[in-house]
Amino acid sequence: VFNVPINVQAGATPQLYQIDAVATGSVGGQVVVDNAVAPYPRANLLVTTAANLAYEPATLSPGTVTRGRLYSFQMTLRNQGGGTVLLDSASTRLTFTDGPHTYSVAPAQPYAIAGGGATQIMLFRSATVPANFTPGAYAVTLDAHGSENGSTFIQSVPLTGRRRRLWYRPPVTRSSRIR
Predict the structure, then answer these.
(1) DSSP string covering 91-115, please?
(2) Whole-model pTM over 0.90
(3) In whole numbers, what is the pLDDT of the chain averaged over residues?
(4) Cα-atom radius of gyration of the chain, to the nearest Å?
(5) Nearby residues of 52 by Cβ (< 8 Å), 6 or more positions away
(6) Which of 8, 65, 71, 122 is least enclosed by beta carbons within 10 angstroms?
(7) Which one, of 149, 166, 158, 145, lies nearest residue 50 by Cα?
(8) Which residues of the chain have pLDDT under 70?
């Protein structure tokens, strides 16, 4: 059994390729060459375009959050490339920040997103928006980490067109009126 890494050049035409190889070595001091190392019938290798994740507009929910409260987000991603992506729930993060304070949460589970325009709804673990978060509208980003067709995959996916709006709601107090 031989494990041979293959580097596919950028710009290679996405298609099915047949694999063949040449092996050289020595046996008892004699050089030997095998010009047809590939298995019979020859193995095939499919070359695809790279995975390219994109946020599906207006799918991030909830649309408004309050600082100091617990939330669980959901959103939809589309893979506009050809490679299948396996997102790692231990290192992928949905994040927004006001500078000194950050809300960052992992997906509820690992997700697989096939290529060719496939979509996937992602659910995220619950976390509390920091109580000292400055109210305002903030850009949200998905930092996607995982693998694509067995190779490392990392992509920052801006959730364009959607900013989280943080509202401060003071505690409700009751007062008594004296008559």
Answers:
(1) T-EEEEE-SS-EEEE-BSS-EEE-S
(2) no
(3) 82
(4) 25
(5) 79, 80, 81, 155
(6) 8
(7) 149
(8) 1-12, 14-23, 34-44, 161-179
DSSP β-ladder status, 151-167 and 64-66 = parallel
Q: How far apart are CA 91 and CA 106, in angstroms?
A: 7
Q: Which residues of 134-149 are buried (b: 16+ CB within 10 A; e: fewer)?
A: eeeebebbbebebbbb
d(CA 124, CA 145): 15
CA distance 102 to 95: 7
By the 10 Å C-beta count (0-12 exposed, 13-18 middle, 19+ buried), 90 is classed as exposed
Of 167, 152, 156, 162, the residue nearest 94 (C-alpha): 156
Residue 65, C-beta contacts closer than 8 angstroms, at least 6 positions apart: 71, 129, 164, 165, 166, 167
Closest to 78 measured CA to CA, from 45, 111, 102, 54: 54
| pLDDT tens digits, one per residue of 64-87 | 899 899 999 999 999 999 989 999
